[in-house]
Design a protein that fits this description.
Layout: E1 2-9, E2 15-22, H1 28-39, H2 58-67, E3 70-76
Antiparallel strand pairs: 1-2, 1-3
Helix pairs in contact: 1-2
Length: about 80
């Protein structure tokens, strides 16, 4: 299993990273789904059905628009 480093800008504008184990490079949406319960444990239980079909990456969109968290990059850890 490979380790991928997800770099993101948090709600305070500070760049942070988290590692994720996955065989393939995760998409931005998969990375957002991974980060959401870590950064916002209570919010992670909310339903995103209102964005269903209207967005390719609803979790990433919510993190960016409502929580000011933006994924910067996803690279294989060395």
């Amino acid at each position: 299993m490979k380790v991928w480093t997800i770099s993101f800008q948090d709600k305070d504008g500070v760049q942070q990273t988290h590692d994720l184990e996955s065989e393939q490079r995760p998409s931005e949406e998969e990375a957002a789904r991974y980060l959401r319960p870590i950064l916002f444990p209570v919010v992670s239980e909310l339903d995103l059905n209102d964005l269903d079909g209207r967005s390719n990456a609803p979790t990433a969109e919510v993190l960016k628009e409502q929580n000011a968290v933006q994924i910067i990059s996803i690279v294989e850890a060395s």
